[in-house]
């Protein structure tokens, strides 16, 4: 018998049950009992530690409680899979988001060399791609950050608000990526310039996919009658940016003033003309 499994106490059995049943108050109580602190590395008969069970069941509050109580966010199952890997494999989007927020590395490999993106459905993959591209970008910017004194090509202002704060936040992220492209276009070190532009374009594409998906999910949730034309616009915009990225990567196009002008027009026109059409509708449904 596995050494970890040999230490499965009645209290552990209670904990596993409470996690499966999503009884967060019971989980909290078991984790807080001072007499006998629970070893959270212990695995059940299937080779899962408590955090893996929570990741499979998709209970974000339970996930938070376990990690705060010391559960290892990168522990492997007997099959060599991390909590975020099993959450992804079982299509538990809320668990994936919670684990990323609590420090899970999306690049962690299983013992077979797979990463969560290899088993993700479309929705989770869109999210994981944003996380991966953001990580690449921030690692790069640590080494390259320099203050630009030239100002931005585009600034978010309150007249761009679409009345739904999470979408305003998304638009600000996209604007920020376009501004970063604007600043880096003048970088003299050509290799460095290409590397940063590639990472920025990668982020821009993935964040745009993520944001469009989030808007479209909301259209579906509230059954917005005129969503069809809006979704078509999203598809066209993504196609245009995707085509440019391909040309850039093949050395057939560059990030120049004309392209940046196009990108800022692309985004502001869509926000001001299309996105603003849903403000009143969502606000009427209590979404702000
Ligand atoms: Fe939109
Ligand atoms: Fe939007």
What would a concise description of this structure say?
The protein is mainly α and 288 residues long.
Q: Could you name the CATH homologous superfamily of the largest domain?
A: Hemerythrin-like
Second-tier CATH architecture of the largest domain: Up-down Bundle
Number of helices: 13
Q: Per CATH, what is the topology of the largest domain?
A: Four Helix Bundle (Hemerythrin (Met), subunit A)
Q: Kindly state the number of beta strands.
A: 0
Q: Roughly what percent helix?
A: 55-70%
Quaternary = single chain
Domain module tally: 2
What general form does the structure show? globular
Describe this structure in words.
The chain has 288 residues and is mostly helical. The protein folds into two domains: 3-119, Serine Threonine Protein Phosphatase 5, Tetratricopeptide repeat, CATH 1.25.40.20; 122-284, Four Helix Bundle (Hemerythrin (Met), subunit A) (Up-down Bundle), CATH 1.20.120. It contains 13 helices and no strands. It has helices at residues 3-6, 10-20, 24-32, 50-57, 60-68, 83-89, 93-101, 122-144, 165-184, 190-221, 227-249, 257-274, 279-284. Helix 11 (227-249) runs antiparallel to helix 12 (257-274). The model has no long low-confidence stretch (mean pLDDT 91). The structure holds fe (ii) ion (2 copies). One fe (ii) ion (FE2) binds next to helix 9 and helix 10. One fe (ii) ion (FE2) is lined by residues 215, 230, 234, 270, 274-275.
């Amino acid at each position: 018998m596995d050494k970890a499994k040999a230490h499965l106490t009645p209290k552990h059995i209670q904990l596993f049950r409470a996690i499966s049943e999503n009884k967060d108050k019971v989980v909290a109580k078991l984790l807080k009992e001072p007499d006998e602190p629970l070893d959270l590395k212990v695995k059940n008969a299937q080779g899962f530690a408590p955090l893996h069970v929570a990741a499979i069941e998709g209970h974000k509050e339970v996930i938070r409680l376990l990690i705060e109580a010391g559960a290892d966010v990168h522990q492997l199952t007997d099959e060599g899979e991390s909590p975020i890997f099993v959450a992804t494999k079982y299509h538990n989007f809320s668990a994936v988001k919670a684990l990323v927020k609590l420090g899970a590395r999306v690049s962690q490999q299983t013992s077979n060399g797979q990463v969560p993106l290899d088993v993700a459905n479309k929705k989770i993959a869109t999210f994981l791609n944003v996380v991966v591209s953001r990580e690449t970008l921030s690692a790069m910017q640590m080494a390259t950050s320099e203050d630009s004194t030239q100002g931005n090509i585009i600034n978010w202002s309150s007249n761009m608000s679409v009345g739904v704060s999470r979408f305003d936040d998304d638009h600000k992220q996209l604007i920020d990526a376009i501004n970063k492209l604007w600043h880096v276009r003048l970088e003299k070190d050509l290799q460095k310039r290409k590397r940063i532009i590639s990472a920025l374009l990668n982020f821009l594409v993935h964040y745009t996919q993520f944001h469009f998906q989030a808007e479209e999910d909301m259209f579906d949730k509230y059954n917005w009658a005129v969503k069809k034309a809006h979704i078509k616009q999203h598809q066209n915009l993504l196609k245009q940016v995707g085509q440019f990225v391909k040309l850039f990567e093949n050395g057939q196009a560059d990030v120049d003033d004309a392209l940046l002008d196009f990108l800022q027009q692309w985004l502001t026109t869509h926000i001001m003309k299309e996105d603003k059409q849903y403000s009143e509708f969502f606000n009427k449904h209590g979404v702000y």
